[in-house]
Specification:
The protein has 103 residues and is mainly alpha-helical. The chain is built from five helices and no strands.
Length: 103
Amino acid sequence: MNDQIATALAEKYPDRAVDLWEKIAEGLINRVKPQAYEEAAVYLRKIRHLLLALKRKKKWQEYLQGLKFQHQKKRRLLEILNRFSDEPLVKQKEKKPIHSLNL
């Protein structure tokens, strides 16, 4: 029900929508079950999408970092939260095309 309300509010009242989705996601996270973490990810995606559409990337990054810090001992949750990071966990070296190598 709250998800439907948040979705309806998203266009005219985005901050209210974000607040509702945060409450839903954090409630699921507090269940401390891997399945609940996956369910929370659905709402975190909605928050991310809306904040990025509003050009509020910094707010999204701060929220995500706050969740990671607050739940730093929950390994499975951190795996899910890391999916939302803009940077890959391990930066890969750029591969050069074979024809550009001096052989």
